[in-house]
Design a protein that fits this description.
This protein has about 270 residues and is an all-alpha fold. The chain has two domains: about 50 residues, no CATH class; about 170 residues. It is built from twelve helices and no strands. Helix 7 runs parallel beside helix 9.
Length: about 270
């Protein structure tokens, strides 16, 4: 009985690797360690020996070794930031009188969509451009529009990251030699719909244009929101200054008894 039960459950044991990943992320453990342990556990539960599991991991890493480029990019970005990359970016945008957050991010959205559409999606990204360049420049533009509190700063950073996501996601499908287009083509082929990658890429253009118009409108509305917040804060500041106006001289005199005041007040 126990043997039959184990035989029925055994094919599902490798799924315990998913539970390891969920538990590790829930406990906020190191993601690399969690994923590695989950992969090893999945292989062992599937009946592989430890040598075969490690060999499979090594082959997968070697086949996708372009991932290792991240370990080259991150130290370079760190060195550039240490020597003032963000400060120079903020100083650059401060020199443009008409620069606003919305206009700056709108230009970045255009750049991101065009480069993604021609296959250069790795020329920008969150670690390469958003954190060291785009976000500091957007914050500098926001400070030109008025005082920036913590909530506003986080909102500007979020819009900077979202602009990169929208530009890449809706721009890369225009480039027909990309994995997502191949996946769509293969999925449609299973249902008897035969389309070439070029046909799919052409149909991605209206979607990219709609995404540009929608997100571009959100960026321009962000400018209006920041301007309205600035006007409101300035009005409150002026009201506070008027409420503490100096008291008239007649009411500011000390009510001193004769002979106890200053020398000029004595009879």
């Amino acid at each position: 009985m126990a043997t039959e039960w184990f035989g029925a459950v055994a094919p599902y044991l490798p799924l315990l690797g998913i539970l390891i990943v969920v538990a590790g992320f829930a406990l906020r453990l190191n993601p690399m360690i969690v994923v590695t342990v989950a992969a090893v556990a999945t292989g062992l539960l599937a009946g592989m020996d430890i040598v075969a599991v490690i060999s499979t991991l090594g082959k997968a890493f070697n086949d996708n070794r372009i991932i290792a480029i991240v370990w080259i990019v991150l130290p370079v970005i760190g060195l550039l930031e240490r020597f003032g990359l963000q400060q120079r970016a903020r100083a650059l945008i401060s020199g443009f009188r008409n620069a606003t957050v919305g206009r700056l991010l709108l230009l970045y959205l255009i750049y991101r969509q065009i480069t993604a559409a021609i296959g250069l999606h790795s020329t920008a990204g969150h670690p390469q451009t958003v954190r060291p360049l785009v976000a500091p420049m957007a914050l500098a533009a926001a400070e030109k529009q008025g005082p920036v509190d913590e909530a506003t700063a986080e909102k500007v950073k979020a819009f900077s990251a979202a602009t990169d996501n929208v530009g890449l996601f809706f721009g890369e499908d225009i480039f027909f030699a990309i994995g997502s287009i191949v996946l769509i083509q293969a999925t449609l082929a299973t249902y008897g719909i035969e389309l070439t990658p070029l046909q799919l890429a052409l149909w991605a253009i209206p979607t990219a244009a709609a995404a540009f118009l929608i997100h571009g409108t959100r960026l321009l509305l962000l400018d209006r929101t920041l301007a309205r917040t600035t006007r409101s804060s300035r009005a409150k500041s002026r009201g506070a200054q008027e409420s503490v106006a100096p008291m008239p001289l007649d009411y500011a005199r000390d009510e001193r008894e004769p002979g106890t005041g200053a020398k000029g007040d004595q009879p």
